[in-house]
């Protein structure tokens, strides 16, 4: 999946949560955007990897691509760190929602993810989508429509 598909999936997930809960929408959407890109810190060519090249290289060398940062373990660590150091529930929820959306999308690719890292088990949906394909574009468009639908509702309530 491309970075923009991850990004739109993260903010769509966050805005959906914002619509159905009382969490601060802006905090949810911003942290959802960050969370949607965070797992690809393991990949130097990704949006977030290019921003933090040193950190990205270290993580890639230690763990490889789509392993640790695409796992349940990493979700737990982020949840723990957020609760401990940034006790703003909306930010934690948004961040985790964005990350989960990323993992779901990557599980639709042929390479899959190592969700149960350090176990060497690849998690992948039976149907896979090629990065940059027409189906990915369709998903991107669908998510964009859903995002704006909820965004309009959120702004309306404000
Ligand atoms: Zn990824």
TrEMBL record:
Transmembrane segments: 68-86, 92-113, 134-156
Cross-referenced InterPro entries: YdjM-like
Source species, domain of life: Bacteria
Keyword terms, alphabetized: Membrane, Transmembrane, Transmembrane helix
Official protein name in the record: Hydrolase
């Amino acid at each position: 999946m491309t970075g923009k598909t991850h990004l739109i999936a993260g903010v769509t997930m966050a805005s959906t949560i914002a619509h159905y809960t009382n969490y601060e929408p802006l905090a949810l959407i911003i942290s959802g955007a960050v969370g949607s890109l965070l797992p690809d810190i393991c990949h130097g060519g990704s949006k977030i990897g290019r921003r933090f090249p040193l950190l990205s290289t270290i993580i890639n060398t230690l763990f490889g691509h789509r392993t640790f940062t695409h796992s349940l373990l990493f979700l737990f660590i982020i949840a723990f760190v957020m609760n401990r150091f940034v006790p703003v529930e909306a930010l934690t929820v948004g961040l985790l929602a964005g990350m989960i959306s990323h993992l779901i999308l990557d599980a639709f690719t042929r390479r899959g993810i190592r969700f149960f890292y350090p176990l060497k088990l690849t998690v992948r949906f039976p149907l896979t989508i090629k990065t940059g394909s027409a189906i990915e574009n369709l998903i991107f468009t669908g998510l964009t429509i859903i995002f704006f639908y909820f965004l309009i509702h959120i702004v309306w309530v404000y």
